């Protein structure tokens, strides 16, 4: 379809007419003895990139390619077209004298979007463009939808996410994001495998939702007649494996949280969690900064990236600062001087922050940090030593048990990693679970449930352990300069479209 037809698509009646014409062409093709979906297999000798990257090798040679027609220009008894395969586009030249009268008439019937296989000789056109002089072609699949030559009518991101298949066809930069995502995931595995970590798989269906503060999706197992939960984290099963002696394990997979959606959140997302025995959260800091730097160097060729116009330097070591000191630096309040919960709540109210009844000092510290500090953390930084009230699975600091050996890593004001020196005291862990149960009973649907089997595992004995979680989608966002998490998930969660 030429650009002159783009405006036609704005008229529903004309669009329906164009779709009807495409379906009529099915009958025309069949009357010519061509089955538009009749070929099961088509053998290619090359991809477009092979020829375009090494023209001298292929000049004058006969090749066979396949792809989707992306443009078509007919001039009497000769036609040019661009076909697009996995690696890009290449021009083809179809001439009446070369393919014969019947085949040329068939080619004239074909539409943009149709998928064809071509055989022909490699040459350069008069304008110097690498081209295939077609001697034979086959229709591999007829397109019945109107494929825009440009993104007319599908500029709305909502439609792009719903019709990702068309998005990938039309916008090469979208395909590049997902090719790079694959490279990133491969690099993560390579980094961890080289460090001796064992990749494992743990259940997606849980009988207890644990390992994170999040509302789960609930389903029902008919045979067992019990409710089950889609996992919200990987943590508790992986730590069971540490107890079992596997010592260095990781898993990268989907987790599910029944929460809101925005540019940083999707209800299902990819999470990396890893655990290593006989180390602590300082060991996890070293792994985090080294992993980010390794991935950036591997896929982008540098440890410096540009994100939304800002240069981010991922080169280790990253800055390290406690949560309390970060609040003091950016807000001017020193919570080391605050002695009571009431005093902390009063400070939050003075800062015009919304508080809840019965809030404890640690919860207020987290609130102040979330609301007033995070936005300032542009360059990579480890925020250390989180309050125990918001860290039910982390080990307390020996010199200040109100805080835990926990950090979160921030880039561009966004959390990208969360890690602990893991709590391995079963008595302390059970007490914290009981406190979480009280919060659930008070209406907090994100508070942890009691996991008696996990307590039992800790009673068997878990060595000192460092654990780390990284949101893979957010990592991909930074490596691809993507504004929204939906831009790095092939099929983001969407509300069903009203008919």
From TrEMBL:
Keyword Ligase in record: yes
Q: Which GO terms describe its cellular component?
A: cytosol
Q: Which residues bind Mg(2+) 1?
A: 408, 415
Give me any GO biological process, just one: lysyl-tRNA aminoacylation
Which positions are annotated as binding Mg(2+) 2? 415
Q: Which CDD domains match?
A: LysRS_core, LysRS_N
Q: Which NCBIfam families match?
A: lysS_bact, PRK00484.1
Give one GO molecular function term. ATP binding
**Which catalysed reactions does the entry list for this protein?**
tRNA(Lys) + L-lysine + ATP = L-lysyl-tRNA(Lys) + AMP + diphosphate
Record family assignment = Belongs to the class-II aminoacyl-tRNA synthetase family.
One Pfam family named in its UniProt record: tRNA-synt_2
Quaternary form? Homodimer.
List localization entries: Cytoplasm
Q: How is the cofactor bound?
A: Binds 3 Mg(2+) ions per subunit.
- Domain Aminoacyl-transfer RNA synthetases class-II family profile, by residue range, is 181-496
> Which keywords does this chain's UniProt record carry?
Aminoacyl-tRNA synthetase, ATP-binding, Cytoplasm, Ligase, Magnesium, Metal-binding, Nucleotide-binding, Protein biosynthesis
What's the protein called, per UniProt? Lysine--tRNA ligase
The EC code for this enzyme is: 6.1.1.6
Recorded hits in InterPro entries, A to Z, give: Aa-tRNA-synt_II, aa-tRNA-synth_II, aa-tRNA-synth_II/BPL/LPL, Lys-tRNA-ligase_II, Lys-tRNA-ligase_II_bac/euk, Lys-tRNA-ligase_II_N, Lys-tRNA-synth_II_C, NA-bd_OB-fold
- Cofactor(s) needed for function: Mg(2+)
Instruction: Spell out the PANTHER family in the cross-references.
Output: LYSINE--TRNA LIGASE, CHLOROPLASTIC_MITOCHONDRIAL, LYSYL-TRNA SYNTHETASE
